[in-house]
């Protein structure tokens, strides 16, 4: 890896002793700190999007470049192509010095970071990042592709029945707001669970995992950042938000974006919350079956936490409790209202 790093002009004089492996935190990347350079090498372990190495790297590089003007993501510093010692290549990005979020106290900072992404002007050309013309239909299609894992995860009959109810509602279009409701399209982080943020010494939140960045519906990010399936995924965060905490989070986001965007997004909060939950739950069903092979070599305490969390969120009792959000947290507007 050292040889690959020195091919970048700014790192030509890099000493091997300056490479410091960082503790493994997530499931898809290893990270190596370049001491004294305020840089981090981001090394894929596998593509969560199922992309070939070059396509995955080019998409991530574009994501870091596009998001940098938000002021809440690491800067892009270089790309290392796939090759000997780096079969999937790597990216070099700016190092963010910070701590894991503490919830619910840091949710407002996360809301402001998301707002900074969502209020960026869209580019003239979306490629190479995805930009589905109907983000809600694309999200439902993703749920459908992943739904097979519910059948393979050994769920209890009660849990399977509850999930089947939610899938049926999504397929029937019961989760959509009124047809004349505008559908905004902005940059979205997708994988915005709180564990993918760092809080710096000024209390500013930085979104660090841009692998899945694309253009879509901002309500999906608001859902993913605050659902129980997300807030307990990372053992360094591992918290459950109360309904009032989620309301405050959404309000903090709304205060940080243009008023017209906030107005367009609010009718979508409930339906996108339900669909994002199905997307995340189906991914966790896959993890419960394939986690050991998807990300081999993970430290046992981290794997044990993630396995236990996946088992928890796939229980009938937990599913029923999360579903209360659709009523208790974000009530739907009456039909016909924007």
Automatic annotation (TrEMBL):
InterPro entries given in the database record: Aminoglycoside_PTrfase, Kinase-like_dom_sf
Domain annotation Aminoglycoside phosphotransferase: ranges: 34-244
One matching Pfam family: APH
Transmembrane stretches, start-end: none
Classification via Gene3D superfamilies: 3.90.1200.10
Domain of life: Bacteria
SUPFAM superfamilies associated with the record: Protein kinase-like (PK-like)
Name the record gives this protein: Aminoglycoside phosphotransferase
Organism: Azospirillum thiophilum
Organism lineage: Bacteria, Pseudomonadati, Pseudomonadota, Alphaproteobacteria, Rhodospirillales
């Amino acid at each position: 890896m050292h040889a690959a790093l020195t091919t970048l002009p700014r790192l030509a004089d890099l000493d091997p002793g300056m490479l410091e492996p960082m503790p493994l935190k997530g499931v898809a990347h290893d990270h190596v700190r370049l001491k004294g350079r305020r840089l981090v090498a981001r090394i894929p372990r596998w593509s969560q999007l199922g992309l070939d190495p070059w396509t995955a790297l080019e998409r991530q590089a574009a994501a870091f470049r596009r998001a940098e003007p938000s002021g809440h993501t690491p800067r892009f510093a270089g790309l290392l192509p796939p090759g000997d010692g780096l079969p999937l290549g790597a990216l070099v990005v700016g190092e963010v010095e910070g701590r894991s979020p503490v919830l619910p106290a840091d949710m407002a900072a996360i809301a402001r970071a998301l707002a900074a992404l969502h209020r960026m002007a869209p580019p003239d050309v979306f490629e190479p990042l995805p930009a589905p013309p109907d983000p809600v239909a694309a999200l439902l299609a993703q749920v459908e592709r992943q739904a097979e894992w519910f059948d393979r995860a050994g769920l209890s009959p009660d849990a399977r029945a509850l999930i089947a109810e939610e899938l049926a509602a999504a397929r029937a279009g019961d989760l959509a707001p009124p047809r004349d409701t505008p559908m905004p399209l902005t940059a979205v982080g997708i994988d915005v669970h709180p564990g993918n943020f760092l809080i710096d010494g000024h209390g500013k939140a930085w979104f660090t995992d841009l692998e899945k960045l694309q253009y879509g519906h901002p309500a999906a990010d608001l859902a993913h950042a605050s659902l129980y399936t997300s807030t307990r995924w990372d053992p360094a965060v591992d918290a459950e938000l109360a309904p009032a905490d989620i309301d405050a989070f959404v309000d903090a986001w709304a205060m940080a974006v243009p008023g017209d965007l906030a107005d367009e997004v609010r009718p979508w909060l409930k339906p996108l919350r339900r669909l994002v939950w199905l997307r995340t739950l189906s991914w966790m069903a896959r993890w419960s079956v394939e986690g050991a092979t998807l990300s081999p070599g993970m430290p046992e305490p981290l794997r044990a936490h993630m396995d236990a969390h996946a088992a928890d969120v796939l229980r009938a009792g937990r599913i029923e409790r999360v579903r209360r959000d659709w009523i208790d947290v974000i009530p739907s507007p009456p039909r016909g209202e924007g």
